[in-house]
């Protein structure tokens, strides 16, 4: 066992961990020793190949196929230097005030969160793409929404030098997406922070971290040699994401004192919906995500966004086998796609647990309300597809594989509520939130509004697990804003902490 000592150790290098590392890195000038321990690899530029299955294996936990306990939802989250920001699409929204009010966290102020969010919009080069960079897949969605009178907005995105290769979710091969691996982590390293990749944290006991470094088949070698490590620190910031942060704390034996630990997990259960046009769309060229429609968020509980996925992911989103899916997939260049996000409630029953070996298990069920929202979202999407000129639409809960444009007046009948069956409809999720929710009391929350874990001095959380309920929009900017606050709290507490 190799022993190491730092002043501050950050676990995880994604939206939360990368932000904390950069924010605290100025302290290195005063001799403060800071390390980031990240279990994923740091890929070399030439290892971003854009090949779907290869990149999924390199950049995601379990190749992007982590399943919930009942196997009804697939969870996608990144495992790399930069975490999920390496594979995110980079759409950059700030938390709506109405959502913030539902969060109702004592000591958290909306104006403060918004100010910090704006700071990261500037730092990550967030802007609207000009009209000539919007591809047909996106344009048709906006046109369809407008024809139906639905509110549609353009997404700000955080790219610099985007070449429109459409590969964002496989790691940008052009270095154009401004994730923490491009912005915050390099700055932190320049300022003196040590980033240790291929380093998995097992548990934390008395401000000492047990971790192991392994050799990976891809990426740069880790800063530390393979082996077991015991790392002590005055302050430990856990930012391993909404599945792994609760798991690390549960493995560390904190579940008894913190009954809310792991609970209130939400994930915006998502559907990838597909329609075929008579003419080529070639939606896989260009930035994949330019518009969203939140017309139905309040009343029906779902958001619609544009998207464009790769052959394997698209195939897994279809309900059925045989000739019809084959016909659809062989016309990839004619496909239009919509991503649905259900705005799921935060329930104590939906939670991250650990199994006997200490591995995370996500016990999550889709409520009846969420299932109904997802069916309504399929009906609404079908209307948008047809209003944009699609000739046939596939709805996974539909009575038949294709709904033809001539049947557009029978959409509600052809997509019935009882057509949504677990196992038939492929539900996925990329916005994992909650599990260490902020709040005033240890009875129903895990940290205070500055990410300090209740009852444990020097231990902080700084990632999406802090969310008390879902974000109801794409979350990464809000995660960075919260992590910025946590960094401020660490700076304030550090002079009073000892090893
Ligand atoms: C495909 C995809 C597309 C997305 N698109 C968008 C988008 O367009 N806009 C948006 O706002 N959001 C998007 N998101 C969501 C966004 O990326 C995440 O919400 C955000 O990155 C989560 O930040 P985090 O810090 O909580 O976790 P992460 O960014 O996932 O970082 C956690 C890090 O901790 C590491 N880690 C985990 N366990 C351990 C351990 N035991 N020891 C050491 N390290 C560990 C992981 O490897 C990872 O690097 C997308 C997500 C995905 C997967
Ligand atoms: S679309 Fe732009 S940001 Fe996305 S992978 Fe291609 S170049 Fe990178």
Care to describe what's here?
The chain has 499 residues and is α/β, with parallel strands linked by helices. It folds into 2 domains: 277 residues, FAD/NAD(P)-binding domain; 154 residues, Cholesterol Oxidase, domain 2 (2-Layer Sandwich). Helices cover 26% and strands 17% of the residues. It has 13 helices and 21 strands. The strands form 5 sheets. The protein has a 7-stranded antiparallel β-sheet. A 5-stranded parallel β-sheet has the order 7-3-2-11-21. A 4-stranded mixed β-sheet has the order 1-10-9-8. The longest helix has 20 residues. The protein is globular. The protein binds flavin-adenine dinucleotide (FAD) and iron/sulfur cluster (SF4). Iron/sulfur cluster (SF4) binds next to loops.
What can be said about this structure in brief?
By secondary structure, this protein is of the alpha/beta class.
Short key terms for the protein model shown above:
499 residues, alpha/beta, FAD/NAD(P)-binding domain, seven-stranded antiparallel sheet, five-stranded parallel sheet, 21 strands, binds flavin-adenine dinucleotide, binds iron/sulfur cluster
């Amino acid at each position: 066992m190799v022993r190491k000592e730092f002043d501050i150790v950050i676990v995880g290098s994604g939206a939360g961990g990368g932000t904390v590392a950069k924010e605290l890195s100025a302290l290195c000038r005063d001799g403060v020793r800071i390390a980031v321990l990240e279990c994923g690899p740091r890929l070399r530029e030439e290892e971003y190949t854009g090949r779907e299955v290869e990149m999924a294996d390199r950049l995601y936990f379990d190749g992007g196929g982590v399943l919930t306990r009942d196997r009804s939802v697939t969870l996608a989250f990144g495992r790399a230097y930069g975490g999920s920001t390496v594979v995110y699409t980079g759409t950059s929204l700030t938390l709506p005030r109405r959502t913030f009010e539902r969060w109702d966290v004592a000591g958290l102020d909306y104006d403060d969160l918004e100010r910090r969010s704006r700071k990261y919009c500037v730092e990550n080069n967030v802007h609207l793409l000009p009209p000539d960079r919007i591809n047909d897949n996106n344009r048709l969605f906006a046109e369809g929404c407008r024809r139906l009178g639905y509110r549609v907005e353009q997404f700000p995105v955080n790219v610099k030098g985007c070449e429109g290769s459409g590969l964002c979710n496989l790691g940008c091969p052009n270095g154009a997406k401004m994730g923490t691996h491009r912005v915050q982590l390099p700055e932190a390293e320049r300022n003196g922070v040590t980033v240790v990749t291929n380093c998995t944290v097992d548990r934390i006991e008395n401000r000492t971290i047990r971790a192991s470094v392994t050799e990976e088949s891809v990426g740069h070698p880790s800063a530390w040699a393979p082996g077991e490590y015991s790392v002590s620190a005055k302050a430990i910031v856990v930012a391993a994401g909404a599945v792994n942060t609760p798991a690390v704390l549960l493995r560390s034996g904190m579940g008894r004192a913190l009954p809310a630990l792991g609970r209130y997990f939400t994930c915006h259960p998502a559907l990838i919906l597909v329609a075929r046009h008579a003419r080529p769309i070639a939606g896989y060229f260009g930035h994949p995500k330019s518009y969203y429609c939140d017309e139905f968020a309040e009343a029906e509980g779902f958001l619609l966004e544009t998207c464009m996925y790769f052959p394997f992911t698209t195939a897994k989103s279809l309900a059925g086998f045989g000739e019809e899916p084959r016909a659809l997939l062989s016309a990839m260049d004619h496909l239009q796609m919509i991503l649905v996000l259900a705005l799921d409630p935060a329930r104590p029953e939906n939670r991250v647990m650990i199994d006997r070996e200490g591995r995370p298990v996500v016990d999550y069920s889709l409520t009846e309300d969420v299932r109904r929202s997802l069916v309504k979202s399929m009906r609404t999407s079908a209307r948008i597809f047809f209003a944009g000129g699609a000739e046939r639409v596939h709805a996974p809960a539909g009575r038949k594989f294709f709904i033809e444009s001539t049947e557009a007046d029978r959409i509600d009948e052809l997509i019935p509520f009882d057509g949504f069956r677990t196992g038939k409809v492929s539900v996925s999720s990329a916005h994992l939130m909650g599990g260490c929710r902020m709040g005033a009391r240890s009875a129903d929350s895990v940290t205070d509004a500055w990410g300090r874990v209740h009852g444990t001095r020097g231990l902080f959380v700084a990632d999406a697990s802090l969310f008390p309920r879902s974000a109801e929009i794409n979350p990464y900017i809000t995660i960075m804003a919260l992590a910025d606050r946590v960094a401020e709290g660490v700076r304030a507490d550090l002079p009073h902490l000892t090893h």
